[in-house]
Structure formats: structure tokens, C-alpha cells
């Protein structure tokens, strides 16, 4: 069942068309990730869905509810963690949660939320004394206090160290276990690949592609990148490149000193022929690897832009 | 019922935020107290009680007249008479400012001149004027005595003020300082709003079903409570440390306080609506505050300012706030008095217009949602 339906969203700020035409639907219980380069319109899309910015055109439907008629009902059903972890710095996590709890008719016990986001130990420290990761976890906790059906997490791990990022991932997977629907934006491909049920790539205000991470990668290409480096120095790699270029299975080559990159749709055949060649010539191969395609490649292929963390 | 619960929690949160904000304590409580103590000490407290001046007497050739004069001079309370010395020594003492003046008594019982020696640098000083005045009085008395006459006219001294009690400068200053503190509380206090907006906290609250009206109300009640603490603290210090006299009309005071505090918060709100950073806000608030501080009769009555400047004072809300506080705290003026209502009108107009323009600006920048 679709818990959220977005149809033909458009939004301009002055002469800039931030969101050109966005449609997608999110099913109950899934982790739905929106990724895109800076300025792609991610935050504007989220803010329209969250009811902060009215769209110029299009529909946003939470089941049977929409913003025009059921604003308060929707606000009770959603939990939002905005990009800037906005909270009262001079209050403690416990006080922040207690305050936010009063905004809702039903709220989960503060204790439970503190446990969920692993802040029980720090509940009595003022927020300004918390670390970046702890603040971010509290922001997720504040989004969870009303026990919402849909949770919006806008770049929840930006600026966190790897350990803190992993902690947030655990919380997001925990939300999934609780049956919550999560709509996530992120700057980290690894994160999108690991957490998402489906990924929606947006660029210049349009949906570029939308599917599960593995389907997206599969769809992209069958081509694989094979890397080799030779102990014999440049001469060996030069000869190998020359040899590979003559093979049908090789589409493209790239050489830098003793390292060689080959692109092929049949990596096994290529390696078989290549090793035969090096054995004949008595060249010694130092390293061999076949690179797996990642979501990052999908991103680059679709947007034509380098990914920057 | 839920609204009440929300208000209670929001007010509690505001209370904690204010109590934990060191800046609020410094600027709201400590700073006005220090400012008042400084001004009261310089301009207010017991200025005419402790004046005294030190003179030395030159009694070159002791005679009947000089002995009588010397003993009479000793009787004058504000003149401290040092041991007699020679005229040369006296001049040195005056030159080195060891004494304020030297009085050279008549050289013989028949001589009629009394010489006063003062330092040229101090010719116009208060001490010199006083000693010269006292001496000339003294000489006149001596002259009258010498011819056996009694004075025909005598001077009498009395002060008047427009109030029901005598308005002393310290009362004027105390009420002015209270007005200034509350006004600054409103002008500077709204920086919180800029900060909240900058951090995205207002946006965050709007994503919840929280009622922003209740949030605003709890914030306002907190500010009024803080201003009440200011008014009580400053009054207590004014009365008990500097001996100010207050005759408070409570209904009037309550109304002046409420309208004044709201008006200045309105102006603060207006400033917050166009300030994107805390620094921009503080800059604008400082300009407004400084202008009003010196043009609104806080430290000195508006009437003592150049005439061309007075119309400016007469449109500033702080002028009316300070006057209103003086009326209700010192003159015990009833709430029905006309000047009160002119003041209320002025403050309501300022506060109201500032608030409306502020709200429009907030809306235009879509900071406040229409939802």
C-alpha cells in the first residue's frame, strides 16, 4: 500500500525552477532514499512534502489526507529531522523531548526514545554540550517522539565520523523493524546503497531514475573494470595494453605507468587471454582486481556529475 | 485543556532557557544595576551634604578684630580652617593646592581689608565661589555689626516641583533607569527570535502541530516576568541604597509597565523581522537604544535639551514610558490623568505599527507559514 503519493510537483523561486516535475510513491514500511547533486532540489522536494513550502503545482497525498484539508492530521502522522539539527541548545535531551511531546496528542514515553537513540546516558546534559553525532541522534529522537508513521530524515549523517554514522544507520534500520516508513536524503552513496529499499536519483528538479540499488546497478551496464599492475615496469604494461586492444572483448583501455585499466563485458575471457600473454612474455603481474559497479557509478552515469562526499 | 498543558510546558521551557542564558542575566539584571549605581553615585546621591573646603588663615599681627574673625570663621561648618601661617607660606600652600584658599585677616584692629588668596587655575571652581560667597556674607555681617545695624531683607530658600511630593534627581534617575532597562529588555531581547530562525528552530516547530500563538504567548509572559524582576530589583536598590522616594499608584504602574514593555517588544520584533544575523540585529537595536537613551529624558529632563531637539524627544516612546513610570511611581498619578493616555497612545502606536510591519515582513519572507 502506498503511504505517500507525490504527483507532478513543481516549484519555482523567482526565475529559478527548483523542482520541474517530480512524481513518485512510497510504500508503507520501506526506506526510500532521494539522492542527487547539490542544488538538485532535494530539500525543496522534502520541504513541500513536509508542508513547509506550498508547491506551485502538483499533489501530495498521505493516504487519504492532503495538506490543504488535513494539515494538523498530517503533522501528527509525520516526524521530521531537518538538515540543521534544530533544537533548544540550553535544554537537555530529556527536556527537549518532553517539550516536543506536549505538541502531540499521543506521544511515546521519553525514556523509550532516549533508549532508541542511545542517549539515556546524556539525558541530563545540555544539548550545547553534546557531540555532533549525539545531536543528530536527538534530532531523530525528536522526529520519533510522536510515534509517527512516516519519518523524514534529511541528511542525518552529514558531518559525522564513521562510527557515529554507523550508529545512525542502526537507528534507521531499527525504525524499519518498528514498521515505520522512512524517507531519507543523503550525501553518502554507501549509505543509500546499504539502507535503502529504493533509491530515487534527482537532478535539476527531475527524477532521473528510481529503483532498488541492486536493480539500478544491474540496469546500468554489464561492463566491468579490470585493473592490473606489472612488476616489469612500463614496458610490460605497454605491451599488455597493445595486446588487449587487439582483443574483441575489450572496449576501452587506460594506462598510467605500470598500471593498466581495461573495460570489458567478458572479464573472465580477458583475464584468461591476458595471463596467457604475460606468461609467454614472462611479465610478472603484481596486482589484479575486478571492480564492482556501485551506486556511485549509477549516479555518475545518470547525472554526468562526479560524486562529492 | 491541551492548550493549557502546552502553555505550561512552553513557559517552563522558556523559564529554563532564560535562567540558563548568562547573557540575559548580564544585560537584563547586572548591567542595569551597575549603570544605575554609577549614575546615582555620580549625579544622584547626597550631593550637597558633604561639601567642604579647606582654607588657611593668615593672621600676621594678632589683634582684637582678627582674633574675633578667626574664631567666627572656625564656626562655619563647610569651611575647614587650618592652623594660621605666614602670608608667604599661605601663598605656597595655595599654589600647591594644599588648601583651596587663604584668608588674610586685618593687620590691625583699625584695618578694614580682608584679602582672599586663591589659585588662578581654580578661580572659577565651586570651592572658590563658595569661599568667596561665604566670606563676602561674613564681611557684610561684620560691617553691619560694626555700624550696629540689623539687616532689612533676609533671603529664604525653598524648592518647588510639579509633583505631589518633591521630585529629587535620584527619583528622576531611578525611574528613568527602570524605563531604560525595560525598554532595552524588549529591544535587545528579541535577538532570540533571530537566533531561533537562524538555527531553523522556528521551522522545526512549524513541522509539529504545536500552536505558535501559544509559543509566542509563553515567550511574552516570560519577558514580562523578567521585566518585573528588573523593576523590583532596581526600585529596591534605588530606595534602600540611594534613598529614593517612591509613591506608587499600582494600577497606573501596572498599565504603564504592560503597555511600555509590549511596545518595546514590538519594536524588537520589528528589528528581528529584517535581521538575518544576530550581529545585524544587535547593531540595529543598539542604534535605536542609543538614540532613545539620550533623547528621552532618562538622565536629564527633556526641557534641558536644545529647543530644536525637543520635538524629537516628544515623539519617542521611551520619553512617554519614562514619564509614565515617573507619574505612577513617584507622583502617584491616577490612571485617569490625561498625560497618561497621551503616553499610552504614543506607545501603543509605536508598538502596534512596529509589530504589524514586522509581521508583514515575516510573512513576505515566508518565515511564518500561512498554514
The number of E-state strands of chain A comes to: 13
Strand content of chain A: 25-35%
* SSE-based structural type of chain B: mainly alpha
Any idea how many domains of chain B? 2
Q: Uncertain runs of chain B with pLDDT below 50, 5 residues or more?
A: 367-371
Give the total of beta strands of chain B.
Answer: 4
Query: How confident is the prediction overall: mean pLDDT of chain A?
Result: 88
Query: What is the rounded distance between the termini of chain B?
Result: 23 Å
Strand order in the largest sheet of chain B: 2-1-3-4
Count of alpha/pi helices of chain B: 14
How would you portray this structure in words?
Chain A is an alpha/beta fold and 309 residues long. Chain A has 2 domains: 217 residues, P-loop containing nucleotide triphosphate hydrolases (Rossmann fold, 3-Layer(aba) Sandwich); 71 residues, 2-Layer Sandwich (Alpha-Beta Plaits), CATH 3.30.70.100. Chain A contains 11 helices and 13 strands. Chain A has a 6-stranded mixed β-sheet, sandwiched between helices. Chain A has a 4-stranded antiparallel β-sheet with strand order 11-12-10-13, covered by helices on one side. In chain A, helix 3 packs across helix 4. The longest helix of chain A has 16 residues. The radius of gyration of chain A is 24 Å and the shape is elongated. The two termini of chain A are 34 Å apart. Chain B is mainly alpha-helical. Chain B has 2 domains: 245 residues, no CATH class; 95 residues, D-Maltodextrin-Binding Protein, domain 2 (3-Layer(aba) Sandwich). Chain B has 14 helices and 4 strands. Chain B has a 4-stranded mixed β-sheet, with helices on both faces. In chain B, strand 1, helix 3 and strand 2 form a beta-alpha-beta unit. Chain B is elongated, with a radius of gyration of 30 Å. The two termini of chain B are 23 Å apart. The C terminus of chain B is likely disordered. At the A-B interface, helix 2 and helix 3 of A face helix 1 and helix 8 of B.
Amino acid at each position: 500500500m502506498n503511504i505517500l503519493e507525490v504527483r507532478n510537483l513543481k516549484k519555482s523561486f523567482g526565475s529559478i525552477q527548483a523542482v520541474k516535475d517530480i512524481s513518485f510513491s512510497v510504500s508503507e514500511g520501506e526506506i526510500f532514499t532521494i539522492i542527487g547533486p547539490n542544488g538538485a532540489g532535494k530539500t525543496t522536494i522534502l520541504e513541500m512534502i513536509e508542508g513547509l513550502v506550498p508547491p506551485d503545482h502538483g499533489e501530495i497525498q498521505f493516504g487519504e489526507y492532503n495538506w490543504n484539508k488535513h494539515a494538523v492530521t498530517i503533522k501528527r502522522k509525520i516526524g521530521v529531522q531537518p538538515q540543521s539539527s534544530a533544537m533548544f541548545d540550553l535544554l537537555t535531551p530529556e527536556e527537549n523531548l518532553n517539550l516536543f511531546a506536549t505538541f502531540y496528542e499521543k506521544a511515546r514515553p521519553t525514556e523509550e526514545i532516549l533508549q532508541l537513540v542511545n542517549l539515556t546516558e546524556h539525558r541530563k546534559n545540555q544539548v550545547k554540550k553534546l557531540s555532533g553525532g549525539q545531536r543528530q541522534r536527538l534530532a531523530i529522537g525528536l522526529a520519533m517522539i510522536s510515534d509517527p508513521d512516516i519519518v523524514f530524515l534529511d541528511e542525518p549523517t552529514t558531518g559525522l565520523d564513521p562510527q557515529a554514522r554507523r550508529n545512525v544507520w542502526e537507528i534507521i534500520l531499527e525504525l524499519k523493524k518498528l514498521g515505520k516508513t522512512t524517507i531519507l536524503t543523503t550525501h553518502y552513496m554507501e549509505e543509500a546503497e546499504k539502507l535503502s529499499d529504493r533509491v530515487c536519483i534527482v537532478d535539476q528538479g527531475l527524477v532521473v531514475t528510481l529503483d532498488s540499488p541492486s536493480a539500478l546497478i544491474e540496469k546500468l551496464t554489464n561492463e566491468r573494470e579490470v585493473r592490473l599492475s606489472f612488476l616489469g615496469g612500463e614496458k610490460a604494461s605497454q605491451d599488455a595494453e597493445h595486446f588487449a586492444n587487439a582483443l574483441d572483448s575489450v572496449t576501452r583501455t587506460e594506462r598510467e605507468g605500470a598500471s593498466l585499466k581495461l573495460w570489458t563485458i567478458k572479464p573472465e575471457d580477458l583475464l584468461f587471454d591476458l595471463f596467457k600473454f604475460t606468461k609467454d612474455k614472462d611479465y610478472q603481474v603484481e596486482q589484479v582486481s575486478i571492480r564492482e559497479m556501485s551506486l556511485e557509478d549509477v549516479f555518475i552515469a545518470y547525472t554526468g556529475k562526479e560524486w562529492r562526499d | 485543556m491541551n492548550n493549557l498543558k502546552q502553555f505550561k510546558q512552553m513557559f517552563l521551557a522558556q523559564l529554563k532557557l532564560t535562567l540558563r542564558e548568562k547573557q540575559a542575566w548580564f544585560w537584563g539584571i547586572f548591567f542595569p544595576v551597575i549603570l544605575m549605581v554609577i549614575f546615582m553615585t555620580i549625579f544622584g546621591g547626597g550631593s550637597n551634604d558633604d561639601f567642604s573646603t579647606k582654607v588657611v588663615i593668615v593672621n600676621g599681627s594678632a589683634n582684637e578684630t582678627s582674633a574675633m574673625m578667626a574664631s567666627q570663621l572656625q564656626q562655619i561648618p563647610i569651611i575647614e580652617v587650618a592652623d594660621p601661617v605666614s602670608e608667604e607660606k599661605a601663598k605656597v600652600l595655595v599654589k600647591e593646592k594644599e588648601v583651596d584658599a587663604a584668608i588674610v585677616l586685618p593687620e590691625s584692629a583699625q584695618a578694614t581689608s580682608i584679602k582672599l588668596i586663591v589659585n588662578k587655575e581654580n578661580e572659577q571652581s565651586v570651592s572658590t565661589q563658595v569661599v568667596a560667597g561665604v566670606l563676602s556674607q561674613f564681611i557684610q555681617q561684620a560691617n553691619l555689626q560694626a555700624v550696629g545695624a540689623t539687616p532689612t531683607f533676609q533671603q529664604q530658600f525653598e524648592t518647588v516641583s510639579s509633583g505631589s511630593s518633591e521630585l529629587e534627581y535620584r527619583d528622576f534617575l531611578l525611574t528613568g533607569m527602570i524605563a531604560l532597562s525595560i525598554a532595552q529588555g524588549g529591544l535587545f531581547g528579541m535577538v532570540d527570535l533571530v537566533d531561533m530562525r537562524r538555527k531553523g528552530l522556528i521551522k522545526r516547530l512549524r513541522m509539529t502541530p504545536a500552536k505558535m500563538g501559544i509559543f509566542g504567548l509563553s515567550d511574552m509572559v516570560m519577558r514580562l516576568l523578567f521585566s518585573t524582576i528588573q523593576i523590583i530589583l532596581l526600585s529596591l536598590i534605588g530606595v534602600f541604597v540611594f534613598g529614593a522616594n517612591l509613591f506608587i499608584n499600582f494600577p497606573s504602574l501596572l498599565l504603564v509597565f504592560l503597555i511600555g514593555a509590549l511596545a518595546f517588544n514590538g519594536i524588537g520584533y520589528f528589528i528581528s523581522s529584517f535581521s538575518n544575523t544576530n550581529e545585524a540585529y544587535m547593531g540595529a537595536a543598539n542604534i535605536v537604544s542609543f538614540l532613545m537613551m539620550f533623547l528621552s529624558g532618562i538622565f536629564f529632563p527633556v526641557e534641558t535639551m536644545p529647543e530644536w531637539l525637543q520635538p524629537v524627544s516628544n515623539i519617542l516612546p521611551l520619553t512617554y514610558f519614562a514619564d509614565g513610570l515617573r507619574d505612577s511611581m513617584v507622583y502617584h498619578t491616577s490612571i485617569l490623568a490625561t498625560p497618561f493616555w497621551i503616553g499610552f497612545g504614543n506607545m501603543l502606536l509605536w508598538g502596534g505599527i512596529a509589530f504589524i510591519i514586522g509581521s508583514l515582513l515575516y510573512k513576505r519572507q515566508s518565515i511564518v507559514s500561512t498554514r
